[in-house]
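Known limitations

Structure tokens in this collection are predictions and should be treated as such. Users comparing against experimental data should check residue numbering before alignment. To illustrate the layout, the record for 6-bladed beta-propeller protein is reproduced below. The input appears on top and the generated tokens appear beneath it.
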Amino acid sequence: MAIFFLRKNTDVLLVLVLFVLLLPGCHQQRTRTEKVFAGKQLMYQLVQLDSIPMVSPLFYTEGFFRVHNHRIYLFDYDHCSVQVFDTAGNFLDTLLTENTIGEYRYGGFTPDGSIYLLDKNNQMRFFDSTGKQRGQPVALNWQRSKLTYEKEEYTAIGTYSIDIQERPYDTRWLPFDAQQRLLIPLWISPHINKQFNRYRWQSGYYQQAALLGAVQLPAAQVQSVFCKRSSLYTAVFNNIPDFDFGSADVRDDTIYVSEAIDSAIHVYAPDQSYLYSFGRQGQHMNQQYPQTTNEKKDRVASSKALSETGYYYHIFCDPSSRLVFRSHTTQKGSGSGLQVYQHGVLVAEAAVPQRFNVIGKIGDWYYADGMVGGYNRLLGVFRFQLLRRSL
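Generated tokens:
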């Protein structure tokens, strides 16, 4: 049953100044629960979308951007550094360098301004806003029992490790529970666990495996695993391991989860219990997902599959406006789509460039990551404003 939150005398128009496209109506997909809000009442316009090039002292970089304290930070894992820029794209400082931190893949800010990183030795490291290390590195503890990683089952924390695929460019670890825990993405490596992984759909993987884990701080202990996959992975689309990923964000300790193939965004309470879902299918999404149960063959087909199909790859919850932004891919070569929700209702949508991950707001501007690396060696972020349409 669909529940609608509608407002009187409202309408929605989403306008891109540099990249203009209005998207028509859509239909709702099957989801795993009946508690789904599927309202649509477009009432915002997105204006002045443009790009901001970043001038880095390093010639070529690969990584991701974060917004914090009115600055834009580049977590450059190619050069093992964290660089600081102003909103005009000017380089300001380098907080951390290769000599300080070495290789890493995950990083971000806790609400108190601390920088957290996971290094190549699977150790969590914390730094203050000036780049000074806080305490000693702590090894991430998966509580693995005498049973090895290869033999443990879906309910065991030790079965999992960190999702290293990074297909949607979403490398956030999300602070919640009054900063006492971090939310992390999970996966089960098919190279280690031959019985329980995304290529073994008949083992009950898509019905039982968890998407997210909660890490207790400062002990860096993985305390729990939760969030089962959408029923779409078995009821509608079978054997599609390339699209076995999701994106999550936290607002007021409430957890929002978006999966690659599911139009619904699933909401969880701080105690990790399911609350409700909302969402509508994105526009111009090719959902003819190729099937495979063979990992070796999949390595060849994976890149093509991800470039030619539509999937949801990033979600961001703005704490100031109560808006939820979700990005998805569209038809081959046509960029991405952006959806904006408020109180479970779709209030705006538009076409945007590829890799459009909304990461924060500074003043009246929202910022999105962005242009990083690639063959054209671009480096920069996008920015835009979201304005309510006059009635």
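For this record: Residues 70 and 130 are 15 Å apart (CA to CA). DSSP finds four helices and 28 strands in the chain. Please report discrepancies through the issue tracker.
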